[in-house]
Structures are given as C-alpha cells and as structure tokens.
Amino acid sequence: MKIICVANQKGGIGKSTLITVLAGALAADYGYRVLVVDADSQQTLAGVRLTNDQPSVELEREAGTLTEPAFPYALESVGMSQVYDRLDEISDDYDVVFIDVPGRSDDTAMIDVLSGANVVLVPVGASDAERLATISFMQLLQEISRLSREQGLDFQFFGVHSHRTNLKEEKDMDEFTDALGLPRLQASLRQLGCYKRLSTRYSYLNPAYRRAVGADASVEAEVRALCDELIARAGLTAELVS
Length: 242
Description:
Blueprint: E1 2-6, H1 15-28, E2 34-38, H2 44-63, E3 74-77, H3 83-89, E4 96-100, H4 108-116, E5 119-124, H5 128-150, E6 156-161, H6 168-180, H7 207-212, H8 217-234
Parallel strand pairs: 1-4, 1-5, 2-3, 2-4, 5-6
C-alpha cells in the first residue's frame, strides 16, 4: 500500500481538487484499489460525497438505474491522530491511499502524518502568499526527507501545479524551486472551470463526465499525464494493481 498525502499550509490552493482528480482516475481507469482519507477539519471531500454525490446515488438506486459500485473508491473521515491506526487495520485492502490534511504544519499530529507517508504532493501557486507558504512547507518536507533517508524509509515529495495558467510568476516559481532543489512534477492541471465542480463519483477520463462538466479533450490528456507521472515517480507499479 502506497500512502500519498496532499498537503500545503496555504488554504484554497487545490488540495481537494488534486485528490479527486487522481483518486477517481486511478480507481476507475487504472484499476487501483483506492482509499481517500479526509483528515482535514473542513471535511471538504466528505462533504462533497455526502451533500452532492450521495443524493444522486439514492435517486438512481430508487429508479433502478444505479450501476454498482456507486463510487469508484472508498472515502473515510479520520482524525489526524488516528490516521495510521486506521490504516494499519485495512492495509491489505488498498493499493493507494490519499490523505487530505489540514492547511497547517505546526503540530505534532501533522508532522507524524506527513512523516509516515510514502509521497507528499504539494499543490503550488504563483501569488506571493502562495509562493512563500509553499517554499517554507517544502523546506519542512526536505528535512523530513533527510531524516527518512537516515532511517532507510521510503519518502518522496513533489510540488505540482493544480491550477496552472502559464503566468510569468509560475515560471519564476518553477525556476526558484528548481534552484532550491525542491522536486516537482512536470505534469499539471490547468485552471479550468470543470475542476471546480468536485465529484467523488466520476473520473475525468470518463467521456460522459467530461461532457457533463464542459471539459474539452485537453483535460483527458493532462489528467492522464499527471496519473502516469505519479505512477512512475511514486513506484505505483503494475504489480500493485489487483
């Protein structure tokens, strides 16, 4: 089981969006057994499933049109201090676990969750506030990475643009993080309206869903590129797929 945290101490930077895009595609289209753990106090992902997705599932079930399973991946709400106790109980049931954590990094529980992950994905932005928050957070991850190497543990972290717009500031951010030796994924998500309509039911690689949210063909290409790069960089090899 690979554990992937999606984290940044700056709120509103695209953590939940990145998780729904990756989890939906890896589960529905790549065949991984995926669990999403919502450990963020805001409970964004759990709220999306309960408020937006579950009612439509119940309507389809009543109409006899529901195709099981209703959701491509499992989703659980777990407190920060209980995350790894819960994962120990179900470690044989999943190939990939995504953990959505709060937008802060100044408490022990947060450090423990980050340190126990195999991969941390850090959504990055281009504004001054986003840049400063992201750089300081990734420097914390550099220290966790150093300690993990000393203990022979599997730990990696990557910055990823979850709403790239090709602004000059973004290119400056890339050059700056590269100069600091902070790793990043080459694949990214564009700032498209279709990603603002979160759903935990569908994959953006599903043509019917892309049409429903007004996504064009470029969305399929960038989601697939992001999944493929994550699979390669995080070691999600074919042998993990059930």
